[in-house]
Amino acid sequence: MSHMIELHNVSKFYSNKDTVSTGFSKVDLNLDMGEFVVITGESGSGKSTLLNVISGLDSYEEGELFIAGEDTSGYRTEDYERYRKKYIGNIFQDFNLVNSYTVYQNVELSMMLSGMPRSEQKQNIPEYIEMVDMTAYTKTKASKLSGGQKQRVAIARALAKNAPVIVADEPTGNLDSASAEKVMETLHRISKDRLVVIVTHNYEQAAPYVTRKITMHDGRIIEDKKIQPAAGDLSDDEMESYLHPEEERKEKEAAKPRSGGRAMRNEEAETGGKGRRKGRGRRNPFAEAPVYRKMSAGSQLRLGVRNTFNLPAKFILLLLVYLFVTAAVLSQYASTKQALHSNDLMGYNNYFTDTSPERLILTKKDGSAFTTSDYESLQKMDNADYIIKGDAGIDTGIMFESDDIDISGPMYPVSCLKEKPTIGRLPKKDTEVVLVADPECYSYDAIKEMDKKILGKKYYIDALNSMAIQGGDRLIKDKVTVVGVVLLSEDAGRSSNGNVMIYVTDNVAARVLVKTAAASSTVTLDFSGTKSDYSGMQVVYPSKKVTKGEVYISEDQAYQFYEEGAARGKTMGLHVKNHYFEESRDFRIGQVFKADNIRSLLGLSKNNYDEYTSNVYINPSDYNKIFNQGNFQSSFFMKDEKLSDSTVKALESAGYKVLVIKDTFTDATGGYAFILRMFSMVRLALEFIVLFFISYAVIRLIMRSRNSYYSTLRILGASRKNTDNILRIELLLMMAISYGGVLVGSNLVRRGIVAVPAVNERLAFLSATDYFILFVGLLVMSLLIAKRYSHKIFSKSAMKVYREEA
Ligand code: ADP
Ligand code: MG
Q1: Is the keyword ATP-binding assigned to this protein (predicted)?
Q2: Coil, strand, or helix at residue 504?
Q3: Has this prediction a pTM greater than 0.70?
Q4: What is the pLDDT of residues 8-46, one digit of tens each?
């Protein structure tokens, strides 16, 4: 005969530190379906312990325990979880309901845990609530019910699992006699197709229904008496088909097309042929064969979400902690970035005249010249302010000298000037310029003082000794006139390191670019096979007086390379090479110039002939064809230099090589920049760790109040995986809500809807990547906390946690 539960010589010991006490010892017991068993005995006799071992909540140390014919000696935690879930419905003296859930939700919880499909849950929950006469309270929170009502809900919850064994420890212990009677009656009503085991010290309450009475004393069974025939004694065959229906169903399913699980079971019950429960009038639709199903992901999600919100105090506390952590991490991170950034900007640089942090110097990765469509798409990029197409000019410092005021600084094309002149107007001709000065500029005060008197001042534009063009080289022949001045305010957001910015017409700027190319190329002159190289100086010059295709060379060159100076009519090869292009052309030597004909041939002064002897002169159109091959380098000015990291990334993926001006700075900290940086990073990391532990401690403290909830879930049959997931969802949802809140807050500040300038200034340093990193950090923190907490509650048995909380 196969029994539902069989114990052979089972003993249970409790060991606490150095004392071992006996829960019960050497118990031999068989329990069958249909029985209504009452265990009585004085306090401390081992009743509860026995019940807990039977229901798989506690382990045993000795003997053998068979459940549904299965040996449990090799059971691991997961096997016990499965066992509890499939077979056991627990009812406790103190009800163990989830107080913050409604009656409906408590019953639903047990169905969710046993993996019942949602449609079945909806259909059956009202029936179970009806069975225990609690329909009127369906939507009432468990905390608002009386003890008797709670216990009836607990019974409905145990039934809802559809477990064949109902185990109740002092179910009426906390109830008045009227409620107790009702609970007993209810338990009896549901016992017909189940095994009900009740522990009580008030035997009288149970007496009318009992089929078997077991009395315990001092950890042993001293009496085991059948009182009346059990309602549902099953034959061996019936028992077998009841306990192992899966195999049976598999055989049937192999023969039949699939249909819905529940329908199948009903059909099976009706046509099962084995006469299950024959001879008993009512077929109980609830007492179906136990089936083990996994809790669905949807149920886990629903519980996680429900738990997040259903305890308002806990919700607000957790929210505050998470908000605090998120905001603190964000603010620490931003202020570190801010500090590092201002460190970065403290350097200086010897190569570039315009060292505004907004400037990015671009070349194309494939080395080609910029096209119109390149400029169009660059201009459309996020954070693009303006683009200086050929940017060599802005590093070619120029110098104005006059009696009143000397001015020098980088040169810009006037099309890139955004401001309107404070004094005067914009240039209309190539011989007109506008000066732009910011308050940091060395001659700002002087210019301001001169006011309108500066207009009309005439200057030669001479190159400062920088990049390529030799210092003192006259960039355009005629004097230029100052026609306008822009005096920038302090918050204009741009400056040029104390220089005056000189805006010339785009045409002049373009000419200076070509000149820069000519000056920075390595030029090889090939006089009938004799080559001479020139670099770092300009040797090829344009002159309108030279015919296309011809070159004028000096007398010195003619005598150096040709016998008797007979150079005219011969061919001179010109080879030009620079960073960006290479070009070779042949020219016919048209004239040889010398001191007495240099004025008539080239319009140059005879007195300076010595300076010109290594120069060669070609027609401006030839000169342009060779040196004006387009822009190979441009400067991209950002609206907000703080976003430079993401802008650089975007430019790089668009096919540009990017030079960040501040990266070219010579360290102004005298070599300590790296150490300062490391120090900031370490400090930030430490701050994060401290924040993590503070929030971890606080969150765990808050989650401690959830211990009883999670032990209830386990007692109802939740696996560790289930509770882990539910916990994770709860914490991740909290995190997402606070993260979203902080994101909305920072957005409001960034957009100036909420005006907190100090915060806004800091937030400007955070990029999308930073926000993402923060998100990942919080995610990891939440998962770690979930893991630690779950480890903590699962390191003890469900009962132990439950007892500690009760
Ligand atoms: P009953 O339910 O019949 O009152 P219990 O099963 O609770 O009795 O207790 C049986 C024996 O086991 C008692 O001697 C009790 O002291 C001991 N016991 C019960 N629970 C624990 C425990 N968690 N730790 C140590 N001893 C325990
Ligand atoms: Mg007890």
Answers
A1: yes
A2: strand
A3: no
A4: 999 999 888 788 888 999 999 999 888 899 999 999 999
